[in-house]
Amino acid sequence: MMSKRKLKMGMIGGGPGSFIGAVHRISAAMDGIIELAAGAFSSSPEKSAETGKELFLPAERVYGSYDEMFAKEKQLPEEERIDFVAIVTPNHVHFDPTKKALENGFHVVLDKPMTFNYEEAKALNKIIEDTGLLFCLTHTYTGYPMVKEARHLIASGVLGKIRKVYVEYPQGWLWTTLEKTDYKQAIWRTDPTKSGIANCMGDIGTHAFNLAEYVSGLKLTKLCADLNIVVEGRTLDDDGAVLLKFDNGASGVLMATQIATGAENNIKIRVFGDKAGLEWEQDNANSLIVRHPEAPDQIYRTGGNIPYLSSWAMENIRTPGGHPEGYLEAFANLYRNFARTLYARKNGEQPLKEWEDFPGAEDGLRGMAFVEHVVKSGKSNEKWTKFEL
């Protein structure tokens, strides 16, 4: 993975008041192979310039719009211009900058969900296929080493035939009308003109759905959803549960809520087969519990040089055993795998299969289809809604 220089990243969004912009910047910089080189950080040129100054970027590489950034970066010599774009805007500003980035020859890392609606997702998926450029969707939780180990164990048959999948994502931050304050993150997420047809299911339900399919290796075939608006005055869901049916006959339950008062962010998955079961949760992210019916529980632990872990986990471990690796490291693993794959392309080499293990266009398309079908099911009197792309 030799290269003459770091990969250069341009950022769209991530200006004043952005939470996820800083997460992307920290994660991208963690391994020293990516540098932030340019940005259009806000729809306000003044705010974009302010953010660029705070990040010590040259004024000429801070742009008033992403259209300006694409036009001017393309004019720079290849060694100077950005290699890819990180897009960290609200949902309604995902499609257009991603489309234009790809059409201008820039690879893309996009914050989830993929787009504002399913129709946009289908159109964007076609553009990604046509350009052949790299696309990463930041479903963070797939970056945890023990999540990758769980996926490997299931794929290796340790659990046998999968029978049941439980995935839950409880948050409590929207337990009251936070959107009526000046809190930017709550304002846009609860606004259907910016968030789309769902709030809770689009924001965190898509993470839970992606984790369920990624870890189990199964594909959803039908669902039955119950969506709720618990806090009075909202127009979008803040709570919900979904019954799941998978392509091998297994069933599952998905819970996502933002009104679990006092809850923080402990996404959790449990998978049960006809030989064994496993469990992982973000609050204890370094551990993966594997349960056998006639033997003591096994606790797999993350850490360097652990001989029983698979290459899928080991490629995403950064520290010795006993040193906690968390959300930022998992996020950084997506960037590192994306960057390694991009370096390999630039060098005319075949990347390791472990490097290519990051969420992409299919995950995004399926996530947006999930949101659409969940909302449709939640409004229907039918028990089951067929899941199809």
How are the SSEs placed, and which strands pair?
Blueprint: E1 7-13, H1 20-29, E2 34-40, H2 45-54, H3 66-74, E3 84-88, H4 95-103, E4 107-110, H5 118-131, E5 135-137, H6 145-155, E6 162-170, H7 184-189, H8 192-195, H9 200-216, E7 220-228, E8 239-246, E9 251-257, E10 268-273, E11 277-281, E12 287-291, E13 298-301, H10 311-314, H11 327-346, H12 361-379, E14 385-386
Parallel strand pairs: 1-2, 1-3, 3-4, 4-5, 6-9
Antiparallel strand pairs: 6-10, 7-8, 7-14, 8-9, 10-11, 11-12, 12-13
Helix pairs in contact: 1-11, 4-5, 5-12, 9-12
Organism: Cyclobacterium plantarum
Pfam family, one: GFO_IDH_MocA
InterPro entries: Gfo/Idh/MocA-like_OxRdtase_N (IPR000683), Gfo/Idh/MocA_oxidoreduct (IPR051317), GFO_IDH_MocA-like_dom (IPR055170), NAD(P)-bd_dom_sf (IPR036291)
